[in-house]
Amino acid sequence: MRITLLAGLVAMACAGPRAEHVEFVSKADVPVTLTAQDVTDSVNVWIAYRRDFDLQEVPASVPARIAVDSKYWLWVNGDLVVFEGGLKRGPNPKGAYFDEIDLAPYLRKGENKLALLQWYFGKDGFSHLSSGCPQLWFDAPALPAGEWLCRVHPAYGIADCPAPNYRLSESSLGFDARKDIEGWQTGTLEGFQPAVPVENTLGDLYLRPIPQWKDYGVKELTFEAVPGADADIVTAPLPHNMQMTPVLTVSDPEGGHRILIETDHAKVVEECLRAEYITKPGDQTYESPGWLNGMKLKLTVEHGARVTGLAYRETGYDTFVEGSFTCDDEFFNKFWDKGLRTIYVNARDNFFDCPDRERGQWWGDIVTISGECFYTYSTSLHGLVRKGIRELADWQRPDSILFSPIPGNYGVELPCQMLAAVGKYGFWNYYMNTGDKATMEHVYPAVKRYMATYHEGPDGLNEWHDGDWNWGDWGQERDMMLLQNMWYCLALEGVANIAELIGEQEDAKAYRARLASLKAAVEKVAWTGTCYRHPDYEDETDDRVQALAVLAGIAPEDHYGAIFETLQKEWHASPYMEKYVMEALFAIGHGDYALERTRQRYDWMVNYPDTDTLFEHWTIGQGGNWDGGSVNHAWSGGPLTVFPTRMFGLYPVEAGWKRFTVRPDPNIFGECALSFPTVAGTVSVTYSRSGGFMEVVVPDGTLAEVVLPDSSSPEVLSPGKHRLALTL
Description:
Layout: E1 10-11, E2 24-25, E3 33-35, E4 45-55, E5 63-68, E6 71-76, E7 79-85, E8 95-102, E9 110-120, E10 136-139, E11 149-152, E12 156-158, E13 173-176, E14 193-194, E15 196-198, E16 204-207, E17 214-220, E18 224-226, E19 231-252, E20 258-263, E21 267-268, E22 270-271, E23 275-278, E24 282-287, E25 292-302, E26 306-316, E27 324-327, H1 330-345, H2 363-373, H3 382-394, H4 415-422, H5 427-434, H6 437-451, H7 480-501, H8 505-526, H9 543-551, H10 560-569, H11 575-587, H12 591-607, H13 639-647, E28 651-654, E29 659-662, E30 671-678, E31 681-688, E32 693-698, E33 703-706, E34 715-717, E35 720-725
Parallel strand pairs: 1-10, 8-16, 13-23, 29-33
Antiparallel strand pairs: 2-16, 3-15, 4-9, 4-11, 5-8, 5-10, 6-7, 6-9, 11-14, 12-13, 17-26, 18-19, 19-24, 19-25, 19-26, 20-23, 20-25, 21-22, 27-30, 28-29, 30-31, 31-32, 32-35, 33-34
C-alpha cells in the first residue's frame, strides 16, 4: 500500500523496500497530490502542514524524501530540522528536485508531530520555473500512514513596498503578526483541514545534488535608532556581505504598526527584495524567512513600535574557505579576500551573477566563478558546478540551442557565453579538476547538437551565428565577429577533448580538423600585422580579441610583441573579460605588466572601504553613483584563477589532479604562498625569492611536474613535501 500526499503536499508512503539512495522519481510514481482547500492566491502562498502519529519504537533510520514548489521549513516535535529546504525548480523544464532527510534523530517513542511550512513563489524568474501549483511531496516509508492537515497561513502576504524587479521569482514578504497562528507546529490545529488532491505538476523528481544550507546561527547586532517625523530609522552594519534573514525583537503596546525591513542592497539599478512586519500588541520576536543580501540592515519603524533587539541568521552553501593565498603585495592580498567573499555570496541554489538584483545563473559569470572555486573553497562546492553543467545541457531547446540563465523563464541564447560554457574554460576545466567523466558523458549529446548550429563561411571563419542576444561583454569596442569565432575555437578545443574522453574518436578528429582550419582562417582574415581585427569592424581595436587569440592558440609567438603593444594601449574589457587579458599577458611573457594593469583597473573596487566584494563594473560608486550595477559580481574575481594557473603554473595535466604541473612564472611575487584542496588532496606551494627556495607539497597518489623559472626541464616530484633551490 502506498499513500502519496502532495499539495501543497504530497506524499507519504508506508510499506515496501526502497533503494538506499534514490536519484530519480518519475511523475508516474507520484499519483496523488494535495493542496490546501483555502488556496485563493497563486502568488506568494504560504501553507502550514501538520501530521501527528505514534511510534512504538523509533527506527534507526527514517529517510524522508521531500519536494516542494518552492521552499519549505520543517519541524519535528517542535525542533526546526530544515531551514529553507528545497531547491528552485528545476533540473530540466519538466522536473523538480527533492531533498532526502533522516528524521530518526528527532523522533521519539509515542506521539510525534511533523510540521512543515511551505512557501510557494507562484511566479517564474531568472532562477526558477513555477509548476503552477503550491505542491509538496513527502515520502517516508518507515513512518506509519496517516492524514495530513493544512491551511493557508493567514499572516503571510506581499509587503507594501516597491515590488522586486521581474527577474526575481521571490516576492518581498509581508507578515502581519496579528493574524499569526502561534504554536501551530505542536499545538492545536484550529482552522486546519485535510489536504485535497490536485494534479501533480511538479513533474519528475531528482535527488538534490548539493548539501542543505549551512546555518551559522542567530547572532546579535548593534544598532542605532534615529527619530523621524512619522517613523524611526534603525540601522545596523552586518559583519560582512552575506545571505541572511533578519530577526527583530519589538515592543508595541497597541500593535498594528508597520516596520519596513531592507538592506543597503534593496535598490541595485532596479528594485530588489525587502520585507515588512506588522506588529501585534506586546513584546514579540520575528524572523523574516526570505533571505536578503547586503552589508547593512535598515528598518523604518512606525511610531508606536520600538525595536529593542536586532539580530541576523546567516545561511549559505555548505562549504568553507580551504584555499589560501598570501604575497608580499597587500593590494593583491586584499583582492583575494574580496574575491573569496564574492564567490560565497553568489552561491546557493545555483551560482548566480549577483545575490541582489537577479540571482540568475548566467554562464559567462559561471565559467569564471567555477574556475575560481577550484582554488578557494572546499570540494563540496564542486557539486554546484556539476549541477549547473547538467542543467545547462538538460534545458536545451528543441532547436538545439543552449541558453541561460537557467533554471527559469528567460530562454535567451548569448552565443559567446554558451561557447565559453561548453569549451576549454567551462565544461572541460570542470572535468580536469574533478575527473567526473559521467557528467561529460551526460552532457556531450547536447553539446554536440549545439556545436552543429554553427556553420563555416566562404572565408573559413564561421558565419555569423545570430543569437537572441549577441552580447560579448559590457562596454564598447567589441569586435563581435572575431569574439564569436575565437570563443568557438576555445569551444572546439574543449569539446574535442570531451569527445575523445568518452570514446567518440571520429567526432574528436572532426573537431580538431575544424579547429585547425578555423585558426588558419582567423590568421589569414584578421591579422593586420599589428593586431587582430575583422575587416568589417570599424571601432577601436578590441583588447579582448587579442587576449582570446593568444589563449585559443591562434596567435604565433612572433605576434606576441605586437599584441603586447596593443594591450598596453587598449583598455576596453569589463571586469568580466579582463581576466582573459590578464591571463594572456602572462602567456606571452609579460606577467609584470599583467599585474600592473590589473592593479590600475581594479584599484577603485579593491580599495573601496565600505564593501568586501567585487563589483560588476569598473566605475560603480565613483562620484557617489551607485546605479551602475551590482557590487557582488564573481566574474570580477578572474585573477583568483590567473594567480594559481599562470603565476604558479598549477594545473592538472591528468584529470582529478593525479598529475599536475608547477611552473612558476618569472614574474611571480617575491614572497608568496598558495594552498588549496583538490579531489586528490591538498596542494601547496611556497615561493621565496629572498630565501632562495620553493617548497611544494604533493598529495598522496599524485605526481607533480615542476619546472623552475631558471630551468626548461621538468622534475617529477613524488608525494610528500619537497624543498627546491632557486638560483634567480
